[in-house]
Amino acid sequence: MVRGLDDKIFNTIIYIILGLCGLAAVLPILYVVSVSITPFGEVLRNGGFILFPREITFSAYRTLLTESNIPKAFQITVLITVIGTTVNLVLTGLMAYPLSRRNLPGRNFFLLMIVFTLLFSGGLIPTYLVVKSMGLLDSIWAMILPNAVWSFNVLIMKSFFEGLPEELFESARMDGAKEFRILLQIVAPLSVPVLLTVGLFYLVGHWNEFFQAIFYVTDRTLYPLQVVVREILMQSQQPLENAENMMPTQTMQMASVMIASLPVIVIYPFLQKHFTKGMLLGSIKG
Amino acid sequence: MEANHSLTPAPRIRPSPRSKLIMILTLLWRFKAFYIMLLPGVIYFIIFRYFPMYGVIIAFKDFAILDGITGSSWVNPWYKHFQDFYESPYFSQLLTNTLLISLYKLIWGTLPPIVLAVLLNECRVRWLKSIVQTLTYMPHFLSWVIIFGILLTLFSQNGGLINRWIVEAGGTSIPFLTSTDYFRSILVGSEVWQNLGWGAIIYLAAMAGIDPTLYEAAKVDGASRLRMIWHITLPGIRSIIVLLFVLKLGHLLDAGFDQIYILYNIQVYPVADIIDTWVYRTGLQQLNFSLASAVGLFKSVIGLILVLGANRVAKKWGEGIW
C-alpha cells in the first residue's frame, strides 16, 4: 500500500523534527549543567564539549555557597518570592472578587481604571520618582510593591469568579454570611485552580526578579539572586590571556546559573498544566 | 459595542434630589463590604500606576530633585525636551533599532511556533508529543540572566563552545556577543529559543477546535496529510494567526528592554540601543530626569495609539470569526 508507506515517511519526518526541537530546548541547559560539574581540565581536553563528564566535582558549587554573595542573595530572593506572592494574591483576589459582581455600582469605572494601565503608563522615570518619594528605595519593598498587582491577573481571576454558580452566593447570603466570609470559605476553596495558575506566574516573576532591583536598590546586601548571578557572569567579559585561568571562572559562572535556575527547572514539569492553562486564559481575555 | 439608546425614554417620576442622594447612599452602603475589599488594590493603582502618569509632567519641566515635581520650573517652549531629542543624533538610531529589532522578532516569533504547533498536532505518538511540549515550553520560564549565561558558554569569544570549535578547526574566533554584525541575530535567536514552544500553545489550542469531520471527509476523498494541513489545519487557525499578528504589531515599540539590557554591551550600542534602554541610561544613570521622561512619554503615547489602532483592526477582522 502506497498510502501506508507515505504515511510512515511523513510520520518519521515529523518525529525527527519534533525530537530536534526538544533537543534544542534542553541541550543548552544540559551543557550548562555539565560545565558546572566538570573539572576544568577535562573540559579543555575534550575541546569543550562534554555532556556526560567522566569525573564530577561540586567544588564550584561549594565555593559559591561558602565564599560568595550567593547564599545571601538566595535568602533575599526567597524572601521576596514568599512575601511578594502572598501580597500579590491577596490584593489581586480582593480586587477580582468585587469586580466579578456584575451589579456592583461603579464596576465599570474600576475596570476601566485597571484596563487603562495596560494601555498607558507613566514610564520608568516618573515611577522611580514615586518609589523614591514613598521612601521605598533600598528596601525589599521596592522589589515587591511597585508591581504588587498585575492588571492582567485581576482580569483572569475576575472572569474565573464570574463563572462560579450564582446560587452558591445567594444561599450563603440567605444564611446571613458576610461577604468576607463568603470570599474566604466559599470562593477561595473553589478557586484553587485559578489561584494556583495566577500565583505561579507571580512566583516565577519574583524568582526572576532583576529590574526592580536594578532600578530601586543600590544596597548590595539587598541584591536578589539574578542580579548577583549577572555580576558573576560579567566578571569574565574582559579578554583573558591564558585559557587555564579562564576555565574555573566559567565553571563557577555556570554553577551560579544553575543555582539560580534550578528551582524553576525542577518544579516546572510538575506544574506545566497550570502554566499552560494560565497562558490560554490570558490570551482569551486579551 | 454601541450603547443602546431607546428612542422614546419612558416617562419617569423624578425623585427629589435629596431622596435620590439617600437612595444612592443606601445602595452604596449595601455594597460596602465590596468597596472595602477593593480599597487596597485601588490605593495601589493610584499610587504606583496613576501618580506616575501625573509625574510625566516633568517631561515639560526642568526637573530638579530639590524642587520636586510641582516646584520645578516649566521649560520654554513646552516641547523643548522633545525637540532636543528629535534633533539629537540618537533619535534616528534609537528609532531604527527599536523598529528593526521589533520587526525581526515579530516575523521570527510568528512563523516557527506555527510550524511547531502543526507538527505537534500531527504527532500520533502521545508520549513524544508531551515530552516535546514539556521541553520546549520550559525556556519560557528562564530569566534573561540565565539565558545570558547560556549564551556566554556557547558563544563568547574566549571560552565559548562554538568558538573553541572554530579555533580547533583552524579558524579565528568570532565575537558573536560583542560584534555589531551578529548581535541582532543573537537577540532574535535567543528570543525564538525562549518562546518557540510557549508561542505554539495558543495555535495548538486553536487547532483542537477544528471540526474533526472535516478531516474525515478529506480522508474519504483521499487527501494526503500534507494537503489536509494546507487546506484544513492552516485555514482553521488563520483568524487566530492574523489576530495575534495584529495585536503584536500594536507593541512594535516594545523591542524587549529586559532582554536587551541584560545581553547588550557598549560595543553593540549602535545596533542594539533601543528607546527603553536609552531612557534608562539617560534617566537613572545620568540623572537627566526630564529628558528621559520626555522620551518615555513620546514612546508611551505612540505605543498607546498603536495598541488602540491594532485592537480596532483586530476587532474589525475578528467579526464573524469568533
From TrEMBL, chain A:
It is found in: Cell membrane. Pfam families: BPD_transp_1. CDD domains: TM_PBP2. SUPFAM superfamilies: MetI-like. The chain crosses the membrane at residues 12-33, 73-97, 109-128, 140-161, 182-204, 252-271. The keyword Ligase does not apply. Its main location: membrane. Keywords: Cell membrane, Membrane, Transmembrane, Transmembrane helix, Transport. The keyword Cell membrane applies. It comes from the Bacteria. InterPro entries: MetI-like, MetI-like_sf. It is a multi-pass membrane protein. Residues 74-271 form the ABC transmembrane type-1 domain. Belongs to the binding-protein-dependent transport system permease family. This is Aldouronate transport system permease protein.
